[in-house]
Amino acid sequence: MEMLMCTPTDIVTSDTLMEQVWGWDSEVSVNNIWVYISNLRKKLQQLNTSVSIRAVRGVGYCMEESR
């Protein structure tokens, strides 16, 4: 979440998330990212915030504010 919040207008790639969170030598798959993003989305929904995490297909994720 911190990585997404630090660059709210930029897209954070899945590779960057994997490297920064688990390290470059980790055997983490994209499925792990999907699970964590899903958990973050649920937590944001529970907080009734206008911010959400948007998936950019084939690239990564970014923060988005609902209007």
What does the model show?
With 67 residues, the protein is α+β, with helices and mostly antiparallel strands. It has one domain (2-65): Winged helix-like DNA-binding domain superfamily/Winged helix DNA-binding domain (Arc Repressor Mutant, subunit A, Orthogonal Bundle), CATH 1.10.10. The chain is 46% helix and 21% strand. The chain has helices spanning 2-6, 14-22, 30-46, and strands spanning 12-13, 51-56, 60-65. Strands 1-3-2 form a 3-stranded antiparallel beta sheet. A hairpin with a 3-residue loop joins strand 2 (51-56) and strand 3 (60-65). It is globular. The model has no long low-confidence stretch (mean pLDDT 90).
Topology:
Elements: H1 2-6, E1 12-13, H2 14-22, H3 30-46, E2 51-56, E3 60-65
**Major beta sheet summary:** 3 strands, antiparallel
CATH-level-2 architecture: Orthogonal Bundle
- The helix content, as a percent range, equals 40-55%
The CATH topology comes to Arc Repressor Mutant, subunit A
**Rounded to an integer, what's the Rg over CA atoms?**
12 Å
SS-based class = alpha+beta
| H-E order | HEHHEE
Task: Please name the fourth-level CATH homologous superfamily.
Answer: Winged helix-like DNA-binding domain superfamily/Winged helix DNA-binding domain
* CATH class annotation: Mainly Alpha
Distance between the first and last residues' Cα: 21 Å
* DSSP summary, beta strand count: 3
Query: How many DSSP helices?
Result: 3
How many distinct folded domains? 1
Mean pLDDT: 90
Strand content: 15-25%
Q: How would you sum up the global shape? A: globular
Q: Order of strands across the biggest sheet?
A: 1-3-2
Which spans have pLDDT < 50 for at least 5 consecutive residues?
none
